[in-house]
Automatic annotation (TrEMBL):
Keywords on record: Membrane, Transmembrane, Transmembrane helix
Transmembrane segments: 58-81, 87-111
Tree of life domain: Bacteria
Region of interest (Disordered), ranges: 1-29
Protein name (database record): Uncharacterized protein
Source organism: Pedobacter psychrodurus
Length: 117
């Protein structure tokens, strides 16, 4: 290891100031602002893509569930399927509310008005 490292470092630092000149500072700020804008745009693009993909999937799951419930109700009504009253109440009440609640929660998250994206 050279003995003059300290001297070289002192010489290098002697020619530089602690604060950059305004032109260098403006250039760095523009660079960081451009990078921030690029990242923000990428984030926005990914969010839009995810919203399209997941909103369609959630709609299909919810629609499929509700069609299944209606099919079971029609089958019970036509005496093709025998279910007790407590099972029908559980099917119609708790599980359907849970599926619709899931739909609402996910949609509110995906399409949050408070977020910028």
């Amino acid at each position: 290891m050279p003995d003059n490292i300290t001297e070289n470092l002192r010489d290098d630092l002697a020619g530089t100031s602690a604060t950059p000149d305004p032109e260098t500072r403006a250039s760095e700020e523009d660079t960081y602002k451009n990078r921030f804008d690029d990242i923000t745009l990428l984030n926005f693009t990914q969010n839009v893509s995810a919203r399209k993909r997941y909103s369609h999937r959630i709609f299909l799951i919810t629609t499929g569930w509700l069609i299944s419930v209606i099919t079971i109700l029609v089958a019970v009504g036509l005496a093709k399927l025998k279910l007790s009253d407590s099972v029908l109440i559980a099917l119609l009440g708790t599980t359907t509310i849970n599926v619709l609640g899931f739909f609402v929660i996910v949609i509110q998250y995906l399409f949050n008005k408070d977020k910028s994206t």
